[in-house]
Every structure is written in C-alpha cells, then in structure tokens.
Amino acid sequence: MEPSNTLERARPARPGVRGWAARARGGYRTLVVVGLVIVPLVAFYLSLLIGRYPIDPGVAIGVLASRVMPITRYWPATVDTVMFQIRLPRALLAMLVGAALAISGASYQGMFRNPLVSPDILGVSSAAGFGAALAILLWNNTLWIEVSALAFGFVGVLLTYAISRVHKTSPAIMLVLAGVIVAAFFSALISVTKYVADPYEKLPAITFWLMGSLDEASWPRVLVSLPLISVGSIGLSLVSWRINLLAMGDEEARSLGVKTELLKGIIILCSTMATAAAVCVSGMIGWVGLIIPHVARALVGPDHRRLLPASLALGATYLLIIDDLARTATSAEIPLGILTALIGTPFFALLLRQTKGGWK
Q1: What mean pLDDT is predicted for residues 91-100?
Q2: Residue 229 burial (CB count, 10 A)
Q3: Distances (CA, A) of 354 to 102, 115, 202, 351
Q4: pTM of the prediction?
C-alpha cells in the first residue's frame, strides 16, 4: 500500500508542471507579441533623430505633435524640413520595403516548402531591374523608372507562371525552374543595357539603382508603394492559415479541400504585387526576404498565422536599421544591397549552424 500511496501523492504534481509550462509559453508569446509591436515603433522614432543633422528627442516629439495639436513652434524651420521632407518619408519607405520583402519571402518558403526561397525566386527582381535599367537608358525620369520597373516585374512573373504550366497545373519544381530561366534571361538583358549605356552618366545610374538605395525617398514614392504593398500583405495574411495546409504538400492540401492552384495563384499575385512595388522604389535589395522569415520562425514558430505578421514587423524594423546604418556610417551613402548582403550572409550561416537545417 505504501508504494501505491506514494504514487497517488505524486500524481497531482503533474498537472501543476503542465500548467506552469503552459503559463510560461503563454508569457513568452505575449512578450514576443509586445516586442514585435514596440520594437518597430521605437526603431522608427530613433530613425527620425539620427543623421548628419541630429534632432533632440523632445523636439522630435513636439514636431510630430504639432501636426495634430496646436503647439507653438519653438524649433527652427530647418527641423520641420528635415523631419517631414527627408526622414519621415524615408523611414516609412524603408519599413514598407522591408515588410513587403519579408512577408513575401515567408509566404514563398511555406508555399514551396523550401527554406532557401526568397521573394525573387520567380524572377520578379531581375525583371523589375531590367525595366528600371531600360527606363534609365531611354528616359532617366523617376516616374518612368518606377512605372517600368513595376510593369516588368509583373511581366517576369507572368512569364514564369506561363512557362511552368503543365497539364493545367504549376508544380513547385516547375515554378522554381521557370523562375531561374526568367531571372537569367532578364539578368542577361540588364547586362546588355549596361553594355550599351553611356559610361559617364547612364551606366553609373543603372549600377547604383541595381544595388538598392532609398536616397531618393519622397512622399510620392511612399504613395506609389503603399497601396500595392498593403493590398499584397493583407491578401497574404488572409490566406495565411491555408498556407499551413499548402506547406504539408499539394496532395494533402487537396485532400483537405484546398484548391491548390487557385491558392498558389493568390500567393504569387500578392507576393508579386508587394515585391514589385518594393523593388520599383528601392532597387534590388537581397537577403531580407530570405533571413527574416527564419528569425520570425525561431520566435513564433511555423504557424503562418503568426509567422507572416512577425515577418512583416521584423522585416520593417531590420531594413529601417540597415538604412540608418547606410546613411550614417560614412560620409557617402552605402547602397542597401551591399549592407544587407554583408550582414545577411554571415548571420544566415550562423543561423544554419545553430538550427542544423531544421526550419519546420
């Protein structure tokens, strides 16, 4: 009887341990959610303060509040110009571009069930790059560069989708291979464009654009990218729970009633919309859509209902910090594509070593 009594006395402890573990997990999730809300806001506010013309934190709050409340201006007019015409649109654009690339990368990684997939897997970045290079070569007008990059980004993805069609379906491997073909084709066209460009004016402009930068950020660019990135991100968020099913495989998803081809089309359309809008205003910025989803997955897990919002918040914060570094580290602004590669590659290598390739 003694062992039995001992066993019964030990049994009630187990639910308590489980309850403690559940409360710990709940507290961790709450902390992560709060962090994903607060950190982007703090990074955004700090971005408005730093630069070659530093702004006092209290003054910055007064300047922002003056737009919604009747506050007597006690700061120079230069502060207004720096805040509202330079730093505010640039910070917003950096967050939009980072969010678009990160949420698109996370969606593609789930759809293709591949941790090495990034937003340019279907050729959108190379096609948009050629569109921008062609516009610089022919017109060198900001509006035409954005329109041409956006249009060719969609053309590139449409070509990829058309090439991958097999018996009225688009298998994942066919999409990837078609994306490689289209990306290589438009990369060759970019090389042709650079070869025939004026080496003193047009060639440097094309090269600098392709490396990615936000030095020409403005309110019109924010207004161009905001609707497309917002629609694309909202569309991906609405189908996030279905991406969980698609990540199980096409056959499993179809057995659960998912129209896989329609779902793939929605994901590709929304991701293309967001990525093309980002590329047309910032140039080609790599690694954001590849590494940020891995970081988000480590924080919130593989459920895309949490993964996509987390990727969006982390991508916005990450590119904002990178842009702050690009415009303050040296006297001449560093292209974003260089910094994201220099920081992203060793970080991704370290992440692979720690996770040992386990991403699911």
Answers
A1: 96
A2: 27
A3: 21, 15, 44, 5
A4: 0.88
Whether pLDDT at 9 is above 50: no
Residue where the block lists tokens 């910025």: 285
CB 187 within 8 A of CB 125: no
Token pair, residue 290, equals 């590849």
Distance CA(257)–CA(328), nearest Å, equals 52
Place of tokens 């094309």: 206
Residue of 52, 53, 39 lying closest to 95 (CA atoms): 39
Q: What is the DSSP string of 136-194?
A: HHHT--HHHHHHHHHHHHHHHHHHHHHHH-BTTB--HHHHHHHHHHHHHHHHHHHHHHH
Tokens of 206: 């094309």
CB 188 within 8 A of CB 312: no
Q: What confidence tens digit (pLDDT) does each residue in 328-348 have?
A: 888 788 999 999 999 888 887
> Which H or E run includes 285?
none
The fold adopted by the segment(s) 38-355 is ABC transporter involved in vitamin B12 uptake, BtuC (1.10.3470)
Using CA atoms of 229, 235, 241, 242 in order, give the dihedral in degrees to the nearest 10. -120
CB contact burial 283-315 (16+ within 10 A = b; e otherwise): bbbbbbbbbbbbbbbebbeeebebbbbbbbbbb
Would the CA dihedral through 96, 101, 105, 111 be positive or negative? positive
Q: Tell me phi and psi for residue 207, to 5 degrees.
A: -60, -45
Buried b (16+ CB within 10 A) or exposed e, 68-83: eeeeeeebeeebeebb
Nearest-CA neighbor of 133 among 214, 205, 63?
A: 205
- Are 323 and 46 in contact by the 8 Å Cβ rule? The answer is no
The answer, yes or no, to whether residue 11 has pLDDT greater than 50, is no
Whether residue 119 contacts residue 279, with contact meaning beta carbons closer than 8 Å, is answered with: no
* Contacting residues for 265 by C-beta, under 8 A, at least 6 apart: 161
- The residues spanned by each domain of the chain are 38-355
User: CA 180, 348, 323: angle at the middle one, nearest 5?
Assistant: 90
Amino acid identity of residue 302, one-letter, is: P
CA distance 313 to 123: 25
Element (H, E) at 358: none
Alpha carbon distances (Å) from 239 to 42, 105, 263, 268, 334: 29, 15, 8, 12, 37
